[in-house]
Amino acid sequence: MIVMDTEETKMLNSLTWRPLDGDVLLFALVVVAPYQAMQNFKYKVKLTPGIGKRGKAAKSAIALFQRNKLANAQEINLLKVLATDDQISRNIPGKVRVSAPQLNRR
């Protein structure tokens, strides 16, 4: 059994999936999980089996998040950093399709 010390616990408790306006955001983290587990996340897309490449799917999702009208400047800056990271698609399964209600809106 692994026991975490108080510093590790404090750090894990500081992670949030729905940042508030007063929160100071230090970084963005890509999470791949079942869609039902992410119902309360502010930024989410649904990945389904398809013919698209995972790198393109990741870029498509980030572009969608950047167009979100509810995103503040701090969140948009963190999304820009994610967009330049080539490793964000590492955990996305190959051959996927990105689905979201607002995906095709410009």
Automatic annotation (TrEMBL):
<feature type="domain" description="NFACT protein C-terminal">
    <location>
        <begin position="6"/>
        <end position="99"/>
    </location>
</feature>
<dbReference type="Pfam" id="PF11923">
    <property type="entry name" value="NFACT-C"/>
</dbReference>
<dbReference type="InterPro" id="IPR051608">
    <property type="entry name" value="RQC_Subunit_NEMF"/>
</dbReference>
<dbReference type="GO" id="GO:0072344">
    <property type="term" value="P:rescue of stalled ribosome"/>
</dbReference>
<dbReference type="GO" id="GO:1990116">
    <property type="term" value="P:ribosome-associated ubiquitin-dependent protein catabolic process"/>
</dbReference>
<dbReference type="InterPro" id="IPR021846">
    <property type="entry name" value="NFACT-C"/>
</dbReference>
<protein>
    <submittedName>
        <fullName>NFACT-C domain-containing protein</fullName>
    </submittedName>
</protein>
<dbReference type="GO" id="GO:1990112">
    <property type="term" value="C:RQC complex"/>
</dbReference>
<dbReference type="GO" id="GO:0000049">
    <property type="term" value="F:tRNA binding"/>
</dbReference>
<dbReference type="GO" id="GO:0043023">
    <property type="term" value="F:ribosomal large subunit binding"/>
</dbReference>
